[in-house]
Each structure stands twice: as structure tokens, then as C-alpha cells.
């Protein structure tokens, strides 16, 4: 599978029912500890659509079928996050971060997350040529997430406490980084998955 197998659509409010459904999936809810009423979805995702929140949200498609979500933002737009991160690792000027999940449970454990991240890194390179790096903190129990980053070419650069999304976690995070100057991401193989259709 190549990076061209993925399509990233900027979210609209038409995507809210899909996001709501995914966020209620147990494997997503464990680490994306969001409330999921209609009002909560509007609160958490409406700002990206309206331009009042300095992040870009995308629904991820493969073969025309939605399978997950990914967002990106410049760390400098979130000074509190930068302050927390710089206590643990170096944060180069121009760094970005991403958050993501595979929503359809049929697409987990097949390498799809790694391939999705790799494809999105290439999109970030193209869209933000002045960016220096992508830095991603992941809570330690979320092994699938930080392993996907490693397989996509990220390297672990630090470990330490950051406020967790889910209060059942103790806040210990691995922090991974990919420098844009290190060349393109590898093409990553992923098994075929058939997302649920309803």
C-alpha cells in the first residue's frame, strides 16, 4: 500500500455522526476520552470547521470508505502544550503535532494506522514546507499508537508526565518525533480491511 491509497477530507458537520459513532467505539473511547453528545461533538470539532480553533481536522478515507480521523496543528498555536513539552524534550521552532485514531474496529491491528500516519506525514510535508518536525506525545498504555509512530519512521525522544486524556492513566507519555529533513516516509504495507457500512 502506498501513501496514495489514502484520502484526507477536511471535516464538515456532515461528518459529525460518523465521528460520534467512532468516539463511542470502546477501542477509541479508551484513549480519546470524549463526551459524545451532539453538543459535545459540536464543541470539540466545530472550531476547526469555523476557523476559530487553530487546528485542521480530517476524516480519513481508503478506497473511498471512511476509516478514521486525524488532525494537525502548529505547536506554537498552543503555548501551554509547548510549555509542558519543552520541560521534557526539545521543541524546534516550526514543529507540528498530530492526533489520530482508526475508528473502524475491523481496521485495527492490520498496519492501517502506520500507513495512515505515513501518508499524512507526506501531506504535511507538501502543505507545510516550512515546518521542521512533527512531535507526538502518546500515553504509554496506548502501545498500538506509539508503535504505529515508530513503524512510520518516528523516533522516541523522551518520556515523562503530561496530563492524560483519560484519568485512569497516570500521565506517563512517550514522546516521538519525526524531522522533515530526514527524507520521505517509507511506503508501509497494511492488510485490507472492510469498514462497517450502515
TrEMBL record:
Pfam families in alphabetical order: Acetyltransf_8
Protein's UniProt keywords contain Oxidoreductase: no
Lineage: Bacteria, Bacillati, Actinomycetota, Actinomycetes, Mycobacteriales
Protein name as it appears in the record: Acetyltransferase
Matches recorded under InterPro entries: Acyl_CoA_acyltransferase, GNAT_dom
Annotated PROSITE patterns: GNAT
Domain N-acetyltransferase residues, every copy: 6-181
UniProt KW keywords: Antibiotic resistance
Amino acid at each position: 500500500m502506498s501513501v496514495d491509497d489514502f484520502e484526507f477530507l477536511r471535516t464538515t458537520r456532515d461528518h459529525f455522526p460518523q465521528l460520534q459513532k467512532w468516539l463511542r467505539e470502546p477501542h477509541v473511547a479508551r484513549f480519546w476520552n470524549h463526551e459524545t453528545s451532539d453538543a459535545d461533538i459540536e464543541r470539540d470539532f466545530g472550531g476547526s470547521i469555523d476557523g476559530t480553533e487553530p487546528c485542521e481536522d480530517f476524516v480519513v478515507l481508503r478506497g473511498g470508505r471512511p476509516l478514521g480521523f486525524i488532525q494537525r496543528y502548529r505547536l506554537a498555536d498552543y503555548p501551554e502544550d509547548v510549555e509542558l513539552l519543552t520541560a521534557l524534550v526539545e521543541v524546534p521552532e516550526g514543529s507540528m503535532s498530530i492526533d489520530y485514531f482508526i475508528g473502524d474496529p475491523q481496521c485495527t491491528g492490520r498496519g492501517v494506522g502506520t500507513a495512515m500516519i505515513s501518508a499524512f506525514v507526506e501531506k504535511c510535508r507538501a502543505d507545510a514546507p516550512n515546518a521542521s518536525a512533527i512531535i507526538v506525545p502518546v500515553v504509554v498504555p496506548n502501545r498500538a499508537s506509539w508503535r504505529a509512530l515508530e513503524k512510520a519512521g518516528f523516533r522516541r525522544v523522551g518520556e515523562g508526565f503530561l496530563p492524560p486524556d483519560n484519568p485512569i492513566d497516570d500521565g506517563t507519555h512517550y514522546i516521538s518525533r519525526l524531522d522533515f529533513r530526514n527524507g520521505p516516509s517509507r511506503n508501509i504495507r497494511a492488510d485490507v480491511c472492510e469498514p462497517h457500512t450502515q
